[in-house]
Design a protein that fits this description.
Layout: H1 2-11, H2 17-29, H3 33-45, H4 49-61, H5 65-77, H6 83-93, H7 97-109, H8 113-125, H9 129-141, H10 145-159, H11 165-171, H12 176-188, H13 192-204, H14 211-221, H15 225-238, H16 243-253, H17 257-269, H18 273-283
Length: 284
């Protein structure tokens, strides 16, 4: 703490942008975001593209998205191509999907595969599944393991083809949805124990996506309602709103209608259409 304060005093009027940026990064690590932002802003004002890039990151971190966009654009104008990806992410959050697509394509053109993967996700979310698959396949052909895993999970969702098992196994550790797709394939082909093992591994690794199918496996295949409830509650704690509906079904099944309605209302409020329909049926 004392060393950081001393460095702040020494660099207050410095024109050494590298030293100012280094101090800003150390302040970020110390949880002193506002002071870090001031360092990055000084470096940016001194003409450093890297300063603009770090300033954009600091602004995005505190929710100043529009200001972050401006900072990233200054960084790009100065030749800091790493800003393309973060610019795309901020524009997507702002709802500027055309701008986000342009930025992700810019990241890809600059040689950043992460930008192309984000482009694939963006295209798929817009209903442009074939274009998304082409982008992901191109990355996979160039040895990008996560893209290969993503592509396998998409193909499973579209075809439920058991022939995808090898691809899903190869990608299960690279992308959470690929793990859950593999588990679904294993359940479909009667290998419940192995499906359970993969989902429990995902849950232990902190993969939010594993909790809902794990809870469903417990209740549907094993008749273990207590473990299912624990899984659904863990999924909610991890941020999966779709667990509200399945937990509500369990609660209703044991006569706790008030608890069920509460969770259905929470799920509906977070955009789960199934929860909303079930709630309407119960209240109707």
């Amino acid at each position: 703490m004392e060393d950081l304060d001393r460095r702040i005093r020494l660099l207050r009027t410095s024109r050494d942008t590298d030293a100012v940026i280094e101090l800003g990064c150390d302040l970020v690590d110390a949880g002193r975001g506002r002071e870090a932002e001031a360092c990055f802003r000084r470096a940016a004002e001194l003409g450093s593209p890297l300063g603009w890039f770090n300033l954009g990151n600091a602004l995005a971190a505190r929710g100043a998205a529009a200001e972050a966009v401006d900072a990233y654009e200054h960084a790009l104008a100065g030749g800091e191509s790493d800003a393309w990806l973060n610019l795309g992410l901020v524009l997507e959050d702002l709802g500027d999907l055309a701008g986000a697509e342009r930025a992700f394509r810019g990241a890809g053109a600059a040689g950043d595969p992460a930008g192309l993967l984000e482009l694939a996700f963006l295209l798929r979310e817009q209903g442009r599944a074939e274009e998304a698959a082409v982008v992901a396949a191109g990355l996979a052909q160039n040895g990008h393991d996560t893209a290969a895993a993503v592509l396998a999970s998409w193909r499973w969702a579209e075809t439920r083809d058991p022939a995808l098992e090898a691809q899903l196994r190869a990608g299960a550790g690279a992308f959470p949805a690929t793990r859950t797709a593999l588990a679904a394939l294993l359940r479909d082909t009667g290998r419940t124990g192995e499906a359970r093992w993969f989902l429990e591994c995902g849950a232990k690794r902190g993969e939010r996506e594993s909790w809902l199918p794990l809870g469903n496996l417990y209740v549907d295949d094993l008749g273990d309602v207590e473990s299912a409830e624990e899984a659904f509650r863990a999924g909610l704690a991890a941020g999966d709103p779709y667990c509200h509906h399945n937990l509500a079904v369990l609660l209703a099944g044991r006569g706790d209608l008030d608890g069920a309605i509460e969770h259905l209302r929470l799920g509906a409020a977070e955009g789960d259409e199934l929860a909303a329909r079930t709630l309407a049926d119960l209240e109707g």
